[in-house]
Amino acid sequence: MFDIKEIRSQFPILNQQVNGKPLIYLDNAASSQKPISVLETWQKYYEEINANVHRGIHTLSQLATEEMENSRKKVQHFINAKHDYEVIFTRGTTEGINLIAYSLGNSNFIKKDDEIIISYLEHHSNIVPWQMLCERTGAKLKVIPIDENGILQLDFLDQNLSEKTKIVSVNQVSNALGVINPIEEIIAKVRKLSSALMVVDGAQSVPHFEIDVQKLDCDFFVFSGHKMYAPMGVGILYGKEEILEKMQPFHGGGEMIATCSFDKTTYAGLPFKFEAGTPNVGGNIALGAAVNFMKKVGVQNIRNHENTLLEYAQKKLLEIDGLKIYGEKAKRAGVVSFNLEGVGIASDVGMILDKLGIAVRTGHHCTQPIMDFFNVAGTVRASFAVFNTLEEIDALAEGVKKAQRMLM
Ligand code: PMP
């Protein structure tokens, strides 16, 4: 049974007023709120266990190591990775993509005139690391175009995939539009027409979908904890064992070595080769609690509830004259991105909503190419999580109407 009251009672932050109004938090694509189970796991770690991992002989260090490695296993099962050592703790999606780009560039994997394909729908963190890699190596960046509904034009792949293509990196869900990309179809084309490595940015899909990296057959899958009810500063890079084995480390330092001398250092095995330095132990353990939370509610239940909210939000918002929603409406997850005709600045709408206690994001959402495509400086973005309600959508629609009256 999906009991929204019970779910909301697990999120203490919701129980407050902002600007004299009950908080309505609709900025989950930027970062979701955290349930008590995650907060308590994090606090319990610092109150009862806190010690550095992987080095200590003493009891607390061993406990901390055990808990963190348990959390790695929880994530492994959550995304159905074959091995726990294919699951690497990072600071988030951004670090995961930078790790891949840096490390592949260091492995002589990519040369001048090789090609990297991304899409028009990418977050800056799935654009800039590849541009930096291209600058370092002389490789070329190619971009899958979109149509006016934000749908990727996949015939571009038929025309552009070749043996020159070394990497294809695409998100599963667009953070700016919420559009769900046909990632299975993209991977099938990549496999058929090239030997490129396939990177999936799952930052906006993991909070909403069941993920099976083996079934997807991607080479890498990256995501952030903080968008799926875990603390900030933790994330995951999944990579296939045989590829991770061949890659050079990203950061050098403690924990990632097998032996170290001034003459030569040898590297630790997976996953530690990619986890230099003291990790965010409390955060990594709390990520496991977030996985437990999602599994307990049921990922499919979360998805169904958010879909109900999304459909209702689109219906209510489209009743407002002059409101334009960006992106395909039928295939989206968790996000509705819009502007009001005649209101040039999305942040004006956001500020009025904030006065009503409603938190939305406004601006370019770290996706300036999409904004350029639609010829706008930014949009208003409402994004949903498991704790949002239909009444909150009503309040959003009323708030947008009020903003329209005030700004026009
Ligand atoms: N990719 C997508 C699709 C995102 O939505 C985000 C966060 N907005 C990122 C990458 C970057 O995530 P982080 O800032 O957590 O590293």
From TrEMBL:
The keyword Transferase applies. It catalyses: (sulfur carrier)-H + L-cysteine = (sulfur carrier)-SH + L-alanine. PROSITE patterns: AA_TRANSFER_CLASS_5. Its cofactor is pyridoxal 5'-phosphate. Residues 24-396 form the Aminotransferase class V domain. Transmembrane segments: none annotated. InterPro entries: Aminotrans_V_dom, Aminotrans_V_PyrdxlP_BS, Cys_dSase_SufS, Cysteine_dSase, PyrdxlP-dep_Trfase, PyrdxlP-dep_Trfase_major, PyrdxlP-dep_Trfase_small. Keywords: Pyridoxal phosphate, Transferase. Pfam families: Aminotran_5. It comes from the Bacteria. Coiled coil: none annotated. Its EC number is 2.8.1.7. It is an enzyme of class 2 (transferase). PANTHER family: CYSTEINE DESULFURASE, CYSTEINE DESULFURASE 1, CHLOROPLASTIC. Catalyzes the removal of elemental sulfur and selenium atoms from L-cysteine, L-cystine, L-selenocysteine, and L-selenocystine to produce L-alanine. Belongs to the class-V pyridoxal-phosphate-dependent aminotransferase family. Csd subfamily. This is Cysteine desulfurase. The lineage of its organism: Bacteria, Pseudomonadati, Bacteroidota, Flavobacteriia, Flavobacteriales.
